[in-house]
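Sanity check

After download, print the first record. It should look like this:
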Amino acid sequence: DPITMEFHDNPTPDVQKVTVERRKEPEVCDDEDIRDEIDALEIFDLLRDINDPEHPLSLEQLNVMQIDNVTVDDANSVVDVFFTPTIPHCSAATLIGLCIRTKLLRSLPSRFKVEVAITPGTHKDELAVNKQLHDKERVAAALENANLEKVVDSCLSGDPGIIVS
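Expected structure tokens:
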């Protein structure tokens, strides 16, 4: 059954040319005792192909995700990601942040503390959205909602044909 959500805030977003090269596939090491160092490009590569919930385009193509807005402190196991909604009143901002947070939590070793927030000054409800995204209990509860989890999974699939409208 298709999931439908209504987002029509920005019917004609600007599409950006993809300019950051992809990292070549790293060598896989199955040794649990070896700690793989993680950097900003690796995090960006994880997030760049997340689908926008409103458009059949990636967060990178819409300039929502930018490598300059990703910081990693591998020594202290901290990842900070800022994302920039396409318009200041984007109603899908919380959902986009939830998708980013979910992708990171599913992909990174459990040692990492993940912070996801709206780029300062780019959304009218920035503080409220950030408060929701930083509330671990609220994020967990959101992902327990089967319909919302399906929407998040479709955005994370990388298949623009599954996008909700």
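If your output differs, re-run the checksum step. Summary of this record's structure: The chain is about 30% helix and 10% strand.
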